[in-house]
């Protein structure tokens, strides 16, 4: 979805379409819509996904939830036009469980990152933590700490260089 949103990648959209179109159709049909009508709605939904891709924000919703919400809204619009009662909310598919091996690898990488952060000078660790884990801008860090902007940028740069050095083994694995 990010490739569709950011680069208007047609191949990524084709994969998205191939994955979600049958699922959206299934959800629509389970809520009482006929096959032909469901296919028409799926076409509208996927066209909306393409045109509204710039509005997708992964921080606000998962791709599946965003697409199913568009489908639900289209279904409601159709029901309103026809003067029929609104369909009941249908429970959507839950995303597949994460791979246990991937979860263990992520936990191991997180541990190595924590160890590498612990090796930084406290002032470097503080600004990196505020910038990357606290999601603060350099200006916001300056307001909170009172440090000059150049000092903040230098500490982040030097700290990131040190982290890269400490974590270089992760890239080769």
From TrEMBL:
<keyword id="KW-0804">Transcription</keyword>
<feature type="domain" description="RNA polymerase sigma factor 70 region 4 type 2">
    <location>
        <begin position="112"/>
        <end position="163"/>
    </location>
</feature>
<keyword id="KW-0805">Transcription regulation</keyword>
<feature type="domain" description="RNA polymerase sigma-70 region 2">
    <location>
        <begin position="18"/>
        <end position="84"/>
    </location>
</feature>
<dbReference type="InterPro" id="IPR007627">
    <property type="entry name" value="RNA_pol_sigma70_r2"/>
</dbReference>
<dbReference type="Pfam" id="PF04542">
    <property type="entry name" value="Sigma70_r2"/>
</dbReference>
<dbReference type="InterPro" id="IPR013249">
    <property type="entry name" value="RNA_pol_sigma70_r4_t2"/>
</dbReference>
<keyword id="KW-0731">Sigma factor</keyword>
<protein>
    <submittedName>
        <fullName>RNA polymerase subunit sigma</fullName>
    </submittedName>
</protein>
<dbReference type="InterPro" id="IPR036388">
    <property type="entry name" value="WH-like_DNA-bd_sf"/>
</dbReference>
<dbReference type="InterPro" id="IPR039425">
    <property type="entry name" value="RNA_pol_sigma-70-like"/>
</dbReference>
<dbReference type="Pfam" id="PF08281">
    <property type="entry name" value="Sigma70_r4_2"/>
</dbReference>
<dbReference type="InterPro" id="IPR014284">
    <property type="entry name" value="RNA_pol_sigma-70_dom"/>
</dbReference>
<dbReference type="InterPro" id="IPR013325">
    <property type="entry name" value="RNA_pol_sigma_r2"/>
</dbReference>
<comment type="similarity">
    <text>Belongs to the sigma-70 factor family. ECF subfamily.</text>
</comment>
<dbReference type="InterPro" id="IPR013324">
    <property type="entry name" value="RNA_pol_sigma_r3/r4-like"/>
</dbReference>
